[in-house]
Amino acid sequence: MPGECHAHMIMDGINYKAAVALHRDGVCESAVRGHLKECQDAGIRFVRDGGDAREVSKLAKELAPEYGIEYLTPIFAIHKRGHYGGIVGHPFDTWQEYRELVKRAAAEGADFIKIMVSGLLDFAHAGTLTEEGLSGEEIRTMIAAAHDAGMAVMAHCNGDRTCRLTLEAGVDSLEHGFFMEEETLHLLAEKGTPWFPTFAPVGNLQGCGRFPEEEVKKNLNMQMERVRKAASLRACIGLGSDAGAYLVPHGKGTWDEYRYLQCAGVPEDIIEQAENRIKAVFRRGAV
Asked: Which residues contact 259 (CB under 8 A, 6 or more apart)?
């Protein structure tokens, strides 16, 4: 069974607000253990978390060996204040504050740094984002500062412009990556950067009635087309389901993502290659 390379142990796949509320007065150990057991029962032996603001993934890493799981985490994600990211981490206003957050993550046991450089998909309007994202200079500065601290970088990123700039800046893994155009997909393949296209948070919305069905299908089909193209270029494409997101439960969501990757024609050896690269690069001190 391939590993899960993009999860959020703080989320439960059902109701984000209710899941976060469990940890209001400190991390709820029973909730964390429940999600780890779901992963264990699904045959998952490797998990890379995307971070949270309440130290849930920190405890998950401590407990994971009891479930036979290797667990990597950034502890929390980092975002520029006023931009998307509060759901999974902490903000900065100045570059000094950013560098302090990088140091704080390292001091708290982070294996790598997670940055947020763009918005989310607008699920009700296919092909659009909730915000454009950061500038090239901002993206380069964030990645360079993390690398200078000896930490690999995982980047939440959507939109062709932002994905291209993030790849050019030397990011170590690209998360989501919706709406990349052909030139950017060629760059992705040339660089060999692991890409985790997170189909499940979109595909699993089909039939739920939360968003217009046609818009959901358009977003899913656009990502399928791009992944098929990237796979034809032998880009490094991996399995990261965004486990914990709405309708993407831990364990089951990973298998859902695996099936979406199969539908997109991603070969097994490429999925394995992506996971192996994460294990090699994202363990602390690998950069």
From this structure: none
8 A C-beta contact, residue 116 and residue 156: yes
Mean pLDDT by 10 residues, the chain (287 residues): 94 97 97 98 98 98 98 98 95 98 98 97 95 96 98 98 98 98 98 98 97 98 98 98 98 98 97 97 80
Strand partners, 91: 79
How far apart are alpha carbons 180 and 226 in whole angstroms?
Answer: 7
Answer whether 158's CB lies under 8 Å from 139's CB.
no
pTM, two decimal places: 0.97
Q: What is the DSSP string of 73-110?
A: --SSEEEETTSS-TTTEEEESSHHHHHHHHHHHHHTT-
Residue 66, Cβ neighbours under 10 Å: how many?
11
Contact between 77 and 89 (Cβ < 8 Å): yes
Q: Label the pairing between strands 113-116 and 153-157.
A: parallel
